[in-house]
């Protein structure tokens, strides 16, 4: 501003000097206000820092074992709540899976296929108890009460036939531990167990009983075509069994069949008669 006014214009330069002095005075006053405001803010910050430091010192002094113990208790309680919520979610998931299994699981699908097969042949499922005797009980039911064969006699007959034809049956029995074919002694023990205990019967026993009874035995199942053992005896008086792979959690299970009465419908949920006859001395 001083450089703008010519030096020989004294009046204008005097006015300019007064204006500059006024501006400098205003600027100094503004600087003073800013310094005071800054001083107040610094005082506040120092006060806050002092408060925080005092608080930390107090926390260090008062953080005794009781405070720590209280914190741990809250943490355990929260963990218990979280665990309970997790268990509830898992339970809900299991229920949902069970609902799906009840409609679309292997057991239900197998039952549907079997029932459809039986209905097409005008047959009805006759259930056996899952007590280890299901195969022999199913055959006894097929033969009828007047045949003279019960569970005990069928077991004894199958064991006797297998002993007499050991070389036809023994090669198919393998020790699960060693993988070796049964020795003569082990085979004899197997036949003894077959005759007097609830050991599960399978295809070997069906083959033996087919020859003993001179009857063919047809096995229906959900997967694959029917299997007939003893075809040489003809199908006229053949016996019919149902083999279920998913009915029980412990393994395969045999049921019998009976003719479907006129107007009788069979489905998965129908109540069926359960065979309850057991041979004496068998569990």
Explain the overall architecture.
This protein has 283 residues and is α/β, with parallel strands linked by helices. It has three domains: 1-63; 65-104; 110-275, Cathepsin B, Chain A (Alpha-Beta Complex), CATH 3.90.70. The chain has eight helices and six strands, in the order αααβαααααβββββ. It has helices at residues 10-62, 65-104, 106-120, 134-143, 151-164, 166-169, 184-196, 203-213; strands at residues 123-128, 217-220, 227-229, 239-248, 251-259, 274-275. The chain has a six-stranded mixed β-sheet with strand order 3-2-4-5-1-6, sandwiched between helices. A hairpin with a 6-residue loop joins strand 2 and strand 3. Helix 4 (134-143) crosses helix 5 and helix 5 crosses helix 8 (203-213). The longest helix is centred in the first third of the chain and has 53 residues, at 10-62. The protein is rod-shaped.
Whole-number tally of structural domains:
3
Query: Number of helix segments?
Result: 8
Distance from N terminus to C terminus (CA atoms, Å) equals 122 Å
CA-atom Rg in angstroms: 48 Å
Architecture of the largest domain, according to CATH? Alpha-Beta Complex
CATH top level class name of the largest domain = Alpha Beta
How many strand elements? 6
The level of helicity is: 55-70%
Oligomer: single chain
Tell me, rounded to a whole number, the average pLDDT.
80
The biggest beta sheet, please? 6 strands, mixed
Order of helices and strands: HHHEHHHHHEEEEE
Low-pLDDT stretches are 266-283
The helix-and-strand class reads alpha/beta
CATH topology heading of the largest domain: Cathepsin B, Chain A
Strand percent estimate: 5-15%
Strand order in the largest sheet: 3-2-4-5-1-6
Morphology call: rod-shaped
């Amino acid at each position: 501003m001083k450089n703008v006014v010519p030096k020989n214009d004294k009046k204008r330069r005097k006015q300019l000097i007064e204006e500059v002095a006024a501006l400098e005075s205003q600027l100094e006053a503004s600087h003073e206000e800013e310094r005071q405001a800054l001083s107040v803010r610094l005082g506040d910050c120092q006060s806050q820092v002092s408060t925080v430091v005092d608080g930390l010192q107090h926390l260090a002094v008062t953080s005794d074992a009781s405070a720590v113990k209280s914190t741990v208790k809250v943490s355990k309680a929260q963990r218990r709540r979280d665990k309970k919520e997790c268990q509830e979610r898992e339970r809900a998931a299991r229920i949902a899976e069970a609902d799906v299994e009840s409609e679309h699981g292997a057991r239900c699908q197998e039952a549907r296929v079997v029932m459809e097969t039986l209905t097409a042949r005008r047959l009805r499922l006759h259930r056996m108890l899952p007590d280890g005797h299901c195969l022999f009980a199913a055959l006894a039911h097929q033969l009828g009460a007047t045949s003279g064969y019960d569970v005990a006699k069928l077991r004894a007959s199958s064991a006797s036939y297998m002993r007499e034809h050991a070389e036809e049956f023994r090669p198919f029995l393998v020790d699960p531990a060693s993988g070796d074919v049964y020795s003569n002694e082990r085979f004899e023990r197997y036949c003894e167990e077959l005759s007097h205990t609830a050991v599960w019967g399978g295809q070997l026993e069906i083959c033996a009983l087919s020859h003993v009874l001179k009857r063919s035995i047809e096995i229906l199942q959900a997967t694959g075509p029917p299997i007939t053992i003893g075809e040489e005896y003809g199908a006229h008086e053949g016996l019919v069994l149902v083999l279920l792979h998913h009915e029980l959690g412990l393994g395969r299970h045999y049921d019998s069949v009976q003719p479907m009465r006129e107007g009788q419908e069979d489905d998965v949920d129908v109540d069926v008669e359960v065979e309850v006859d057991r041979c004496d001395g068998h569990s």
